[in-house]
Design a protein that fits this description.
Structural class of chain A: alpha/beta
Mean pLDDT of chain A: 80
CATH architecture of the largest domain in chain A: 3-Layer(aba) Sandwich
Helix content of chain A: 25-40%
Number of strands of chain A: 26
Largest sheet of chain A: 8 strands, mixed
Number of helices of chain A: 18
Distance between the termini of chain A: 70 Å
CATH class of the largest domain in chain A: Alpha Beta
Number of domains of chain A: 2
Radius of gyration of chain A: 39 Å
CATH topology of the largest domain in chain A: Rossmann fold
Shape of chain A: elongated
Oligomer: homodimer
Largest interface: A-B, 90 and 90 residues
Strand content of chain A: 15-25%
């Protein structure tokens, strides 16, 4: 495709040699170039982020960059980025190069290249970025118009040798002034006229016709990125310009090179070349051939850089995760709120089968702030069902689950802000001794702080009573609350309704404000996990036999319930009414919000059975005598705080008495009411969840 | 509770000292005892697995063990094993000991103790085994009847000093004979009469009344487990027997001890004791007090051994896993076939989001033989959704998924037999060059071998066409086959029906045998993943853009589909008709097998939607023009083997032509039939599953 790049190393001083050019080399992380400034190193063409057009200016082929930087002579170019590797390889490279060369030819003929010499050097870049593997396939071309016949080299000398010593001083001064003025510093093509008194003047190409004077030495100068004995690539199109526009035959060129910021007469070259008027060169329609695809290890093949190995694994993991989520948003969920997901703080009460899977699912959805609460240690039987642990976590008595889980989450995704809190959840009906009271009071206040500092709470423990205090705290603080509970082959996943005073001002504790918690649509607020119960939570763990301590649930249940819990949570985050949204039912014709929410319906409760391979959605409203979320309980808690909690913890019947459940049960017993309980077809051991 | 155990160290030769006894020590991993056989070490009472009654003999208090072992003198005992630690501590230890002592008292009074002296030494063991933490709480008691007033020690001498040298020979010989006869070796209580000619004779206690003769020295002998200067614990009840049964006042005892298997006159003791007739000792109703709870570091507390730390973690993990599964069987699923689960060999095609979760679920159900097939490497975006990988697996280009997954499974459960096979699945419509042909042929035969050597195959890849070859191989080999496939927010889980020749003899390939594959009930066989399709699988991966290469499914989908796939698989294993079972539908009143299968219904297909939080079961029968499982295809494959496969791989329309789908599509197009396709309301990208 390109036959004329430097094929022999430069030996430039004899006559009748074809003028050769050292190709441009690309440097693909940063389109600028500068004159060569090192005797051993040629300058690359650098492509930087700012080289690319900004969004606002997306149509312009020239980026809106600041001009005048002496080390950044702009080079316009075109980037073709393909969507697939196949498309990358299938690009018609010959015609792409011709297209770019046409622009140069056009600019020479319209005179634009004389007005703004920067357009003489162009680049073309084709690329495919495999953002999954962090490998970038690319191929640069620096289109150069081919003179036919080629120019002949008459003489090539060091500038220091070619110029008289007076001229050396004068040319140096003129060049340094040109390079130091912000108006001309990045103008890479120019000409120098040296008067008979050796005074050198540098001028813009557009001044060529005006500044012809006899008896003057005239050299065409250009910033030469090359350090070798042959001139650099930019000279090629400069020759084409000079030949076709001004029809000169014998030309002197100054290959301008620098050292330490000043013109370097030792490395700069003065070249005399003969241009044989090419056939048809003045014919605007007859575009000369172009060459310029960059070689890769002497072969015409594309380059590939794999950044994965050199990148920080954590940053790679973050990019990979973001990529996945952004693709999901792009392809399927334009309204996916990744910022909200990455900033929402989730508190998981329980780091067992459910807790492990919920944490994993949250991370997969882009949640980055996760706190796990558990006071247990990893037992030998855990890793098979609790997906964050391995056998290593079980040795020497077992690590604390909360800490091991947080560590495991970081091994999966190091940028997650995962914390483990080793603590017990105080439970109603588990009386405490005076000695234990201080630690229970501490646990209550620690749990209060945790709920307060998080946006959403997942209740994932193995007993009913351990869900009571977090349910109450969430109802009082009005946090998004999701419960998942398992039976042997059935599960329940639900979101708790807003708290009884959720629409009221924070500190109000009037019992009469119950109605304020109706949803925006005026509906009754949704119930919590305890709203359907007619018994207060009490100690269910004492005297548990081994089989009662261990998981007796079908293994498939926990991943299903955990996944649904997180999907429900993400739905809440994306629903216009958030946690106030009414409960939808599968196949309900219209959703509560009018327009269809992006993630689908928003059920209140999802119950599923592996026995029947079935799943159903239910709605249950809040109960006025709920032991965890009714206004009586929440306002009593707000009034008395820890004193109230200690009462509930120490006196098994306190909550039932307070809420009127005691009375209710008595009347129920005397009338033998047939309870219309939605949970009828469910196992009693709904909450028999692995520890 | 017990006040009389040795409180001062033995100084036994002065008169008027209360006779003291060295308590028995228990050794709790192996109820036997033997005479002391080491001068520095007393023998323990050993409790072995064979000490416990066998199931067949569960009612007997004496185990059905072989008698006559000289080092295993049986000691009857009672083991109380509680279900909870609370129950262990709450046991009434005083009355338990009294109860056991009553048995001894009863045996003394009925004469049973004279007939079978082994019942004089009894033990009582209370225990609680925490099999989750591998800690064992236990407390031994060796009930001893307390003489009141206690016996007085007159004299204690080494046997070598007490006997005359002639008697030493004679007694040694008699004792050694007694110990060497299998009839008497394990009879720990006896008496020795020494005639005036120093001839010693040993006799059973039952011979006492018959063998009284004047002028004879008589000593009561017993196997003494103790090596100290005081006699061992068994002497206590022996004293009670002698005192209450024969009313003797002054008695000589031989504390029989051994060295290297022979009587040791140096360590054996002869003790003279005076028994003051206890008040009421002859009154059968008045049971004397009993002592005997073993001390733990000089305190009356129970012992606890924690085996976890000293056990091999792998064995612990196996026990823990077994415990979990056995508890599940015991509590909820008596018909759970753990042997079948642990021996079934599962082949997972695909080790991505689905493969990882399916492998985890299989392990949780007790499946121990898992092979994963995948040719990909772990990418940075994988660990967040593919639950067997961590960031470490992504470094340096990423490990092969199949191998990393197998390694990860072992970290979770080291006893799993997990293997990874790095290989590509040959796919129809992906033409191969001549060069590639060999490796494709190899892959086909490797996959054939893998399917052949496994019992069940899970299809968990991300393209339709990669499921074709395994589906065909499974249909031909009649393997249990489960498919899981994901859309953006919907999934399909299904079991393939049996192959078209499944009821026929292995080598038959007649096309007319289609009918043989009807299920036992005479129904049509269930369809495979391709039965509903009217296009043959073809290359869907070429020119995939980045978003098409990456997972675009809601994160919750894969764990749900994977869990359901494994639950469905376990249901098949437990269904009386196995893979031949007809397809059930949720809420179908009666199951196909008549009696309700233990794990619930056996659907053919389960489709679920996260958008609607819904799930439904469907039945689809096999198609006569299915490109993967119809008799035409399977018999063609059986006839031509690899030649057939290469045709299908290289010619995109070959399968459609073969099965008549081409014709069908043409007629469909000309008539514009409205396809009654069950998949209508499903996304087209059903099988867009993460790699």
């Amino acid at each position: 495709m390109a036959q004329e790049e430097k094929s022999r190393s430069g030996c430039g001083s004899s006559s009748s040699t074809i003028l050769q050019f050292v190709p441009f080399n690309s440097l693909a992380d940063e389109g600028f170039y500068a004159p060569c400034s090192h005797s051993q190193v040629s300058n690359h063409l650098r492509l930087l982020a700012e080289s690319l057009p900004t969004d606002e200016n997306g149509q312009s082929s020239m980026p809106a960059i600041s001009r005048g930087n002496r080390n950044r002579c702009p080079v316009p170019g075109t980037l073709y980025n393909t969507n697939t590797l196949e498309a990358f390889h299938a690009l018609d490279k010959k015609s792409l190069l011709k297209e770019e060369a046409n622009k140069i030819w056009e600019d020479i003929h319209t005179g634009r290249a004389v007005e703004d010499s920067a357009v003489l050097s162009r680049f073309l870049l084709i690329s495919f970025a495999d953002l999954k593997k962090w490998s970038f396939h690319y191929w640069f071309a620096f289109p150069a118009l081919v003179l036919d016949p080629p120019a002949t080299l008459v003489e090539s000398k060091r500038a220091s040798e070619w110029f008289t010593s007076e001229e050396v001083k004068s040319v140096s001064m003129a060049c340094n002034d040109w390079r130091n003025s912000s108006l001309t510093a990045d103008v890479p093509f120019f000409f120098i006229s040296i008067a008979s008194n050796s005074h050198a003047t540098i001028r813009h190409l557009k001044d060529w016709e005006a500044c012809q004077a006899d008896n003057q030495k005239v050299l065409f100068g250009f910033y030469d990125p090359c350090h070798e004995k042959d001139p650099g690539w930019p000279l090629r199109n400069f020759l084409a310009l000079i030949s076709s526009r001004w029809n000169l035959k014998s030309v002197h060129f100054l290959c301008y090179r620098e050292s330490r910021g000043f013109m370097d007469m030792e490395s700069s070259l003065v070249i005399e070349a003969l241009i044989t008027a090419p056939q048809g060169l003045n014919d605007h329609q007859l575009v000369p051939n172009a060459v310029g695809w960059e070689k890769n290890k002497n072969k015409y093949v594309s380059r590939c850089i794999n950044l994965a190995k050199s990148m920080d694994p954590t940053r790679l993991a973050v990019s990979a995760a973001d990529l996945n989520l952004k693709l999901m948003r792009w392809r399927a969920l334009p309204s996916l709120n990744l910022d909200e997901l990455s900033s929402v703080k989730c508190l998981l009460i329980g780091a067992g089968t459910l807790g492990c899977q919920v944490a994993r699912m949250l991370m997969a959805w882009g949640v980055r702030k996760i706190t796990l609460v558990d006071n247990g240690r990893v037992a030998m039987s855990n890793p098979l069902r609790q997906s964050l642990y391995t056998l290593d976590d079980c040795l020497d008595g077992g690590d604390f689950k909360a800490l091991a889980a947080a560590k495991s989450l970081k091994r999966i995704f190091p940028a997650v802000e995962a914390k483990g809190e080793v603590m017990a959840i105080p439970m109603p009906g588990h009386p405490v001794t005076n000695q234990e009271e201080k630690s229970v009071v501490d646990d209550c206040s620690r749990l209060y702080d945790l709920v307060d500092s998080h946006d959403a709470v997942f209740l994932l423990t193995d007993t009913r009573e351990s869900r009571w205090l977090p349910t109450l705290l969430c109802a009082s603080a009005n946090k998004i609350t999701i419960t998942a509970a398992l039976g042997f082959d059935s599960f329940l996943v639900m979101r708790h309704g807003p708290g009884p005073f959720s629409s009221a001002h924070a500190n109000t504790s009037s019992i009469d404000m119950e109605n304020l918690a109706r949803t925006d649509k005026g509906g009754k607020r949704l119930g919590c996990y305890f709203c359907n119960d007619v018994v207060a939570p009490t100690d269910s763990t004492a005297n548990r036999t081994l089989d009662q301590q261990c998981t007796v649930t079908r293994p498939g249940l926990a991943p299903i319930a955990s996944s649904l819990a997180v999907e429900l949570f993400v739905s809440i985050l994306h629903h216009p009414d958030g946690m106030f949204a009414e409960g939808d039912i599968t196949n309900s014709t219209s959703s509560s919000s009018g327009s269809e929410p992006p993630l689908g319906i928003m059920p209140h409760q999802i119950r599923g059975s592996l026995f029947h391979f079935s799943q159903m959605t239910l709605v249950g409203h809040s109960s006025n005598s709920c032991t965890a979320c009714c206004s009586t309980v929440v306002s009593e808690y707000r009034k008395k705080g820890i004193e109230f909690l200690l009462q509930a913890i120490n006196h098994p019947t306190y909550l039932e008495d307070l809420t009127g459940l005691t009375e209710l049960k008595e009347s129920a017993n005397s009338f033998k009411l047939d309870w219309d309980d939605e949970r009828d077809d469910f196992d009693d051991d709904d909450d028999c969840v692995e520890i």
